[in-house]
Specification:
The structure holds two protein chains of two kinds. In chain A, 76% of the residues lie in helices and 0% in strands. Chain A is mainly α. The longest helix of chain A has 34 residues. Chain A is globular. Chain B has an eleven-stranded mixed beta sheet with strand order 6-5-4-1-2-11-10-3-9-8-7, with helices on both faces. Classes of the chains: A mainly alpha, B alpha/beta. The interface between A and B is medium-sized, with 23 and 39 residues.
Chain lengths: 233, 216
């Protein structure tokens, strides 16, 4: 219908792949951070909270630059990855995943934090009196009750990662087939004299993906806010 | 089967203390709201840690402040029926009922689900979600859920307080059946004199945070 060229399809496929891996990579970190922020009181909580949200307000080019410093061959993280594991993420699609995950993390943590905070702790206490230890209580009560928010956060993170531009192009540049994601392909098309119509087609894809993700997240959040244990008396 | 407690804790600017021994049958903790009744139940269940004292259930020490001994709620085998019921909204009535039952050792002499379901007449809504039940029905499920963990003691915190008169009248016969059929010590918190007179064989008054049972 849209009549996409092979390189357009490459870019879309790559963005889908980066988005999916970004969700997988950030999910455990995001849930851990969200749980920490929702349930544990500690002195540096505002600082941790601010650091998590930072990518949301920091210019993406700065985030990308910081990633380059950290994950470059001589960077503190990059050197370890290179010398110990023999892997390099700079200018690789895996680097695009890292950039996307960092940029998507705040949205994921925010959604999850709200959903964990909304779980009624009195239900967890009830589970404890019924013989469930802390872990079993977590997996049978806390997690299932917060799952809509966790999924909503994951969907938004996917959408954010799918369209990540600034940090990605700074960190891993624009290599066709390797790091040229959909937004980077759009940017490249706009740099060529006759690229406007192709750019428009890819933009429509981006709009569709974003719209679907936001609607999905909204539906999931609605399920979460439905009152639980409502009194029928 | 007996529960023996001698405990105290500080709640805000007032002291809650309880010292009594109860045996099989319903014992009421009777007093106005805010007198510390729920705090006493919470300490017995292990939800709130007493600052001092000792809790012994059937010869097993659950809490001993001096010895630094404090069993977690899940290790106490105490059924707790909450005023606000606290049914799990994501599970069916049946799964709510079996939540504690499924965690029992296979060699425990457990309450049989069929017996409890019959006693409380729950069979018609096993597949429904708790939110579709009336308040009285939810309370029956909450009682069944607590019974099915085969507790050594049952705590009931104002199980009728949030129900209207009609629902109360509806559930009272179930509580009487429970009292007459289940061989357990039951500690029943209430501020309603008539309810206590109808259900309990013994009453321990709670006045300004103090619940002291007679020596008998």
């Amino acid at each position: 219908m849209l009549d996409l060229s092979p390189s357009d399809i490459d870019a879309i496929t790559l963005s889908l792949k980066v988005g999916a891996w970004s969700v997988v990579v950030s999910l455990p970190f995001a849930f851990g951070l969200a749980y920490l922020l929702a349930r544990v009181e500690f002195i540096f909580k505002p600082v941790v909270s601010a650091l998590v949200l930072m990518p949301l307000v920091l210019p993406p080019v700065v985030t990308g630059f910081l990633l380059l410093l950290a994950f470059g061959k001589n960077g503190p993280v990059g050197a370890v990855l290179d010398q110990v594991f023999g892997i390099s993420v700079a200018f690789k699609w895996t680097g695009a995943v890292i950039a996307a995950a960092v940029m998507g993390l705040p949205l994921m943590v925010m959604g999850m934090r709200i959903s964990i905070e909304s779980v009624d702790r009195r239900l967890e206490m009830a589970a404890r009196t019924l013989g469930a230890g802390p872990w079993r209580t977590f997996f049978t009560v806390t997690l299932p009750l917060s799952i809509p928010g966790v999924l909503a956060g994951a969907v938004l993170c996917f959408a954010r990662s799918f369209g990540e531009f600034g940090a990605t192009i700074t960190f891993v540049s624009n290599i066709p087939g390797e790091t040229r994601t959909l937004p980077i392909a759009i940017y490249a098309l706009l740099q060529t004299p006759s690229g406007d119509s192709a750019a428009l087609k890819l933009s429509l894809v981006a709009i569709a993906v974003s719209l679907i993700a936001i609607i999905l997240a909204e539906v999931l959040n609605r399920r979460l806010s439905r009152p639980a244990g409502h009194d029928g008396a | 089967m007996a529960l023996e407690i001698d405990i105290s804790t500080v709640r805000g600017d007032f002291i809650v203390e309880a010292k009594f021994k109860i045996e099989r049958g319903i014992t009421a903790l009777f007093g106005p709201s805010g007198s510390g009744k729920t705090t006493i139940l919470s300490m017995i269940a292990g939800v709130v840690k007493p600052t001092h004292g000792r809790i012994v259930l059937d010869g097993q020490v659950l809490f001993d402040g001096a010895a630094g001994m404090n069993l977690a709620p899940e290790q106490r085998r105490i059924g707790y029926v909450f005023q606000d019921r606290r049914l799990f909204p994501h599970l069916s009535v049946e799964k709510n009922l079996l939540y504690g039952y499924r965690l029992l050792d296979s060699n425990t002499d457990a309450q049989k689900p069929a017996d409890v379901i019959a006693l409380l007449e729950l069979s018609s809504f096993l597949r429904r979600k708790p939110e579709t039940l009336s308040g009285g029905e939810q309370q029956r499920v909450a009682i069944g859920r607590a019974l099915l963990m085969s507790p050594h003691l049952l705590l009931m915190d104002e199980p009728l307080a949030s129900l209207d008169a009609r629902r109360k009248a509806e559930i009272l016969p179930y509580l009487e059946r429970l009292r007459d059929n289940v061989r357990l010590p039951i500690l029943y918190v209430s501020h309603d004199e008539r309810e206590v007179a109808r259900l309990a064989k013994r009453t321990i008054p709670v006045i300004d945070g103090r619940a002291i049972g007679s020596s008998t």
